[in-house]
Design a protein that fits this description.
The protein is an alpha/beta fold. The chain has 2 domains: 10-124, no CATH class; 127-252, no CATH class. Helix content is 39%, strand content 12%. The protein has helices at residues 35-44, 69-76, 86-97, 99-112, 120-131, 140-147, 151-157, 159-165, 173-179, 204-221, and strands at residues 56-59, 78-81, 132-137, 166-170, 187-194, 231-234. A 4-stranded mixed β-sheet has the order 4-3-5-6. Strand 1, helix 2 (69-76) and strand 2 (78-81) form a beta-alpha-beta unit. Helix 2 crosses helix 4 (99-112) and helix 3 (86-97) crosses helix 4 (99-112). The radius of gyration is 18 Å and the shape is globular.
Length: 267
């Protein structure tokens, strides 16, 4: 991935829609935002961790390598951030867009136990943090089609229902990085959140605030135990993401739209 700055990244893909409510000066026309700029926005939004400590983005080279990344966030509020780096830039934007959920994920890492060998619970938390997609769903039947990987039924037969009663919101910062050069097999790991039918009449900022609160609550009350709990979602299958999704035959590509063995799924 090129580390050259581009101020036009938000126009590259509809997958960036959840980041559009963020202030325009986080997308400078000339250079990367530095930690000071990120911290101004974090303070303005009142970002805090699970202990109520202010979230502060600090240059990665200034932190002690002895302290674990997640432990540092939990105990100090400091998020080690590499400058001129898309991955860490999108992580900061995810904190600004999903503050409660990010704080909950961090707290759960500590609850699961920080050690040299990451356990299955922490693998699940990392998967959501890096590759997560929050799926707002006002029709439980559609959610079941997604969980069962019934792609043609979901995205072809019931396409209009999906467009009216489902919304797809990236939380994983690795997915945002990949979206800069999106490709047909690009896949997220999704968690379904029930919403009312009028949810989709809200603007994006209000939708995100509601989803962030709901996801944080679910994480703390029902923490994941395994990455298998998150259903895979080929992102190019979402209506409107790519021209490919306008062709029913696209969903017959079994290299992208695979069947799956069902385990307990977050829904």
């Amino acid at each position: 991935m090129s580390h050259a700055w581009s101020p036009h990244w938000r126009a590259v893909s509809p997958l960036f829609a959840p980041l559009l409510p963020l202030p325009a000066n986080l997308c400078s026309p000339t250079d990367w935002p530095d930690c000071a700029e990120l911290n101004r926005h974090a303070a303005a939004r009142g970002l805090v961790n699970a202990l109520g400590l202010p979230i502060c983005f600090i240059p990665d080279g200034t932190v002690s390598p002895e302290q674990n990344y997640e432990a540092r966030i939990y105990h100090t509020g400091q998020v080690a951030t590499r400058t001129h780096n898309w991955h860490d830039y999108f992580n900061a934007l995810a904190w600004l867009s999903w503050p409660r959920s990010k704080a909950a994920l961090n707290a759960l890492h500590l609850r699961a136990g920080i050690s040299a060998q990451r356990n299955r619970a922490r693998d699940a938390l990392t998967m959501l943090d890096e590759s997560g997609v929050v799926v707002a769903c006002a029709d439980p039947a559609l959610g079941q089609h997604l969980i069962q990987a019934e792609w043609t039924t979901l995205f072809v037969t019931r396409r209009q229902a999906v467009q009216a009663a489902m919304g797809f919101y990236l939380i994983g910062h690795s997915l945002y990085e990949k979206a800069l050069s999106a490709y047909p097999a690009m896949t997220g790991k999704c968690t379904l959140l029930p919403v009312s039918a009028d949810f989709f009449a809200l603007d994006m900022a209000a939708q995100l605030a509601q989803l962030d609160a709901a996801l944080a609550l679910r994480l703390l009350n029902q923490p994941p135990h395994s990455p298998a709990e998150y259903a895979p979602l080929p992102l190019f299958g979402i209506p409107g993401i790519s021209a490919d999704s306008e062709q029913p035959a696209f969903y017959a590509n079994s290299q992208i739209f695979r069947s799956r063995r069902i385990t307990a799924v977050q829904s």
